[in-house]
Design brief:
With 158 residues, the chain is an alpha+beta fold. It has a single domain (3-156), classed as Alpha-D-Glucose-1,6-Bisphosphate, Chain A, domain 4 (2-Layer Sandwich), CATH 3.30.530.20. The chain has four helices and seven strands. The chain has a seven-stranded antiparallel sheet with strand order 1-7-6-5-4-3-2, covered by helices on one side. Helix 1 crosses helix 3 and helix 2 crosses helix 3 (117-147). The protein starts with a strand and ends with a helix.
Length: 158
């Protein structure tokens, strides 16, 4: 199965980055170009263990729905989301947060499987894998920007 592994240094405390990464508003803002909206489940604030959220977005010339559930969470070290419903045949996204001396490392491990057999594998190799990596990097970039400036206070200090 294809896997995307991204490790990002962020000059901020791990607990702040952890909370930003599971905040619905951050996900929506990072994916505004895809017209992403939370349409069911936890639609505001922080995603918690056991909760589901259904995202509606526009990808690859089509409106898409993806329902995910937070199946594991150890605050502020990690959480895992899995797809319950959507276009992929399997989707598991692990988020890990490791404190280090001058900040923290955020590690994203996304494992997925694409439908349509050989044609799906070809589409993944030619296009989809890079598309998903760019998609994740956009969200990571926004989290990094929030965490390394005072922007995080607007969301987390309420």
């Amino acid at each position: 199965m294809p896997t995307i592994h991204l490790t990002t240094f962020i000059a901020a405390p791990a607990d702040i980055v952890f909370d930003l990464s599971r905040h619905v508003s951050v996900h929506k803002e990072a994916n505004v170009v895809y017209k992403t909206e939370a349409v069911a489940g936890t639609r505001f604030g922080f995603l918690e263990k056991g909760e589901t959220i259904t995202w509606k977005s526009f990808h690859l010339f089509k409106e898409r729905l993806q329902r995910v559930k937070i199946v594991e969470m150890i605050k502020p070290e990690m959480y895992v989301e899995v797809q319950l419903q959507g276009d992929l045949t399997m989707f598991r996204h692990e988020h890990h947060f490791k404190p280090i001396d001058n900040g923290m490392l955020m590690i994203d491990l996304l494992t997925y499987d694409f439908p349509y057999g050989q044609l799906g594998r070809l589409f993944n190799a030619v296009y989809f894998h890079q598309y998903m990596e760019k998609y994740l990097q956009q969200k990571i970039g926004l989290i990094k920007n929030y965490a390394e400036t005072d922007r995080w206070k607007k969301l987390l200090l309420r």
